[in-house]
Amino acid sequence: MELIKDYVITLATMIILISAIELIAPDNSMKKYLKFVLGLILIAVMISPIIDIFSNSENIIVSNIAEYFELDKEDDKSIEVSSNKEYSSSTLEMFKENLEKNCNRLLNEKFVNQDFESNIICNIDPKNIEYSIEKIKVGVKEKGTSKIDKVIISTKEEKKSEKEVNNKDEIVSYLMEIFAVTKDKIEIYKINE
Fold this sequence. Notes:
GMP Synthetase, Chain A, domain 3, transmembrane, membrane, transmembrane helix, Spore_III_AF, Stage III sporulation protein AF
């Protein structure tokens, strides 16, 4: 970056100097020769960085590349240190959230008349890039307006019957196929509106 800055400063200085010389030069037959010489000087200034690169700047380029790779290694070491201290819980939590979002998205694409809320309990091994699912809990809500249930007012306490999801078996088999888990690891429940 410093080389480019120096090049631009030198070039601008030479253009200003050449313009000043042309302004104070007398108008005679020598002026065209003076312009020719000043043009050659300007061309020499413009190609000097290219000549430097092909001649002695090879060592500078090699040292700059080596310096870059040293900085890159230091960055990698700092990443390793931070990841070994804690495979940050936020990173693992983000993985779990993304897994849940993907589950919701896939279910919404397959079953368009329903909305889903997933909660996946899993163990994540970031070193081997593996995860194992312990439990998938999926809440299902029907889209659109729902029927109002019959309201029974009674003095006796009655057990609320849990509502069943219409296509529970289809959802379970789809999740078994996607996540390669057994049926006992999947729990489907209806979301009360």
